[in-house]
Amino acid sequence: MNLIFRLLAVILAAWWRPRMRMNETSELRFRVWPLDLDLNLHLTNSRYLSLMDLGRTDLILRSGAWKEMRRQRLGVVLAGSALRFRRPLAPFARFTLATKLIGCDERWLYVMQVVSGPDGLACTAVMRAAFVKKGKLVPPEPVLQAVSPGFGKEALPAWVAEWAEVEAAFAE
């Protein structure tokens, strides 16, 4: 139940927080609550993914992408993720979630998300997402240009391209 309150807080805070471009970093601060814990008494793996949804929501709202998505009647879907857990987050620990769009290709948006706690890096993730309309993928670059004019289609880091190849192997 506490996720709905966190979602509402992110949505409401987005109205007052500074606007940002799609290629800037969104930062959200959270605390590990008892309902976030697993049997090992640290932040459960599945909660990281739920919280990362909130980071992407903040980026979409504050960049103005949500307005453009509504205008074009687009949705956004997560198509893949790769996470690496480094350190546990203990009960009541404060932590920061940083979310940044690292680039796109003809079909996909690639988003890097980093969770840092009191002892340093806790988790890193890369997500692959897409804009969709009526069940079909929409090229991301025109949408990104409408939201952040001048958004460049920089070359993706080599490791992202390699990860995308591994993801494609799952489709076979």
Features:
31% strand; globular; single chain; 172 residues; 37% helix; alpha+beta; Thiol Ester Dehydrase, Chain A; 6 strands; six-stranded antiparallel β-sheet
What are the low-pLDDT stretches, counting only 5+ consecutive residues below 50? none
Instruction: Note the gap between the termini.
Output: 37 Å
Helix content: 25-40%
How many helices in DSSP terms? 5
Instruction: State the shape.
Output: globular
Could you report the average pLDDT, rounded to the nearest whole number?
A: 91
| CATH structural class | Alpha Beta
CATH architecture: Roll
Question: How many strands, what sense, and barrel or not for the largest sheet?
Answer: 6 strands, antiparallel
For the record, what is the CATH homologous superfamily label?
A: Hotdog Thioesterase
Structural class: alpha+beta
- Name the helix and strand elements from N-terminus to C-terminus, one letter apiece: HEHHEEEEEHH
Number of extended strands: 6
The CATH topology is Thiol Ester Dehydrase, Chain A
Organism: Acidocella aminolytica 101 = DSM 11237
Pfam family, one: 4HBT_2
Protein name: Thioesterase
Task: Report what the structure shows.
It is a single chain. This protein is an alpha+beta fold and 172 residues long. The chain has one domain (2-170): Roll (Thiol Ester Dehydrase, Chain A), CATH 3.10.129. Helix content is 37%, strand content 31%. The protein has five helices and six strands. Strands 1, 2, 3, 4, 5 and 6 form a six-stranded antiparallel beta sheet that branches. It is globular and about 45 Å long. The mean pLDDT is 91.
